[in-house]
Structure formats: C-alpha cells, structure tokens
Amino acid sequence: MNLRQLEMRLERLEGFERPTARLEQYQTPAPVAARLLHHAAMQGAIEGRAVCDLGCGTGILACGAALLGASRVTGLDIDPAAIAVARRNAETFGVTVEFLVADVRDPDLDRAALACDTVVMNPPFGAQKAHADRPFIDRALELGEVVYGIFNEGSTPFVAAYTEGRATIEEVIRCAFPMRRTFAHHRKDRVDITVEVIRLKRI
Fold it and tell me: Is the distance from CB of 137 to CB of 105 less than 8 angstroms?
C-alpha cells in the first residue's frame, strides 16, 4: 500500500463524537497519520511487529498499523467514548486491534503484556496542561524499542533533553497538521500548524 492509498483509507475513519478540550482530543489528520505510518513501515517498524498506540483516541494510528501488517496492535486511551469509536473503526477496516481503556500514567499498567517493538502516538501537546506529553514519552520508552511520536513544532530540543540517557533521536520529519475548529474557543474553521514526527530509539 503506497502513501496515498493509505491516506485515502484513513480518511474514511470516524472522528471524536464529543471531543474534550481537557484531553486535547484533536483528530490526527489522515495525511499526518499516513505519513508517520508509511515512513515507519518503510523502516521495517510495522509489518510483522507488535505495535502499541498510546493515547490512541479514535484509533487512526492503531488501525493504520494493523492495515500495514503489524503482527499485534494494542491501543490505549483514557476515554471510553473514544475507545468505542476506535473499535468501530477497526471493524470498518476488518482489522484486529486490542483497544484498552487505560491511563498511561497508571503505575499498575501491565507493562509485560503491553511490551512491543514499536510505539506510535500523538500525545497531548500540553496546550491545556503543561508537560502533558511527558507521561506518554516515559511509557513509550518503557514499552517499545522504537517510538514514532507527533510533537508540536520546536519540541525536538526538549525531547532530546528529556530522554537523554534513555533514547536517541534518530530522525525528525516536519509536516503540516491541519487543525479544524473543534472547541468553542477556536476562532477559525481551520488552522495549519507544523508538527514534528520524531523517531526515538531506546538505548
């Protein structure tokens, strides 16, 4: 499946029914999700690999990884309503994904059961709560050997410093992230921001 074909498939998926600003529930745009997944697949990080999607929301990254031949895919999100949509999306694609309602910060999370080869994630950018992305980075490096994460523009120095001694940044891809009007405080129908897709390799 080439990049455009993957993007077109991902565009069919349902988004959040009632997004919550507190959880920064912005739908991951299909072009961004497709680019992350296709790039990871080209690097051998998806097909035949165990993949975990942290803060999976409606499951676009998890479902896309399953489409690309991951051997096992797990998606975690704290919001039961988002997980319900994610399960419907997996059914739409006819793929098998284990979706769990769970908090990445939960100290009792079963790390052994969730251990994987590759983590994909679009964590909160921290617009509503400072440092909201840190628990996702921490958990990702506990669970996976390689991490592909979507971060706000300019985050690379922070991620490098925060993960020093635990991981190395192997690649940064910058791409446009079209953010559509989602919450009452949004003034425009669409704002294009730039994000950084960062590939981390656990040391």
Answer: no
Give yes or no for residue 94 having a pLDDT over 70. Answer: yes
pLDDT per residue as tens digits for the range 17-48: 887 777 777 889 999 999 999 999 999 999 99
Rounded Cα distance between 104 and 122, Å, is 13
Cβ-in-10-Å burial (0-12, 13-18, 19+) of 28 comes to: buried
- The DSSP symbol for 166 reads T
- Distance, CA of 135 to CA of 104 (rounded, Å): 7
Separation between Cα atoms, residue 8 and residue 18, nearest integer Å = 24
Backbone phi and psi for residue 18, each to the nearest 5 degrees, phi listed first: -135, 80
Distance from the first to the final alpha carbon of the chain: 31
Q: For the chain, what is the radius of gyration of the CA atoms?
A: 15
- Greatest Cα pair distance in the chain: 44
- Chain position carrying tokens 């690379």: 156
CA distance 29 to 91: 20
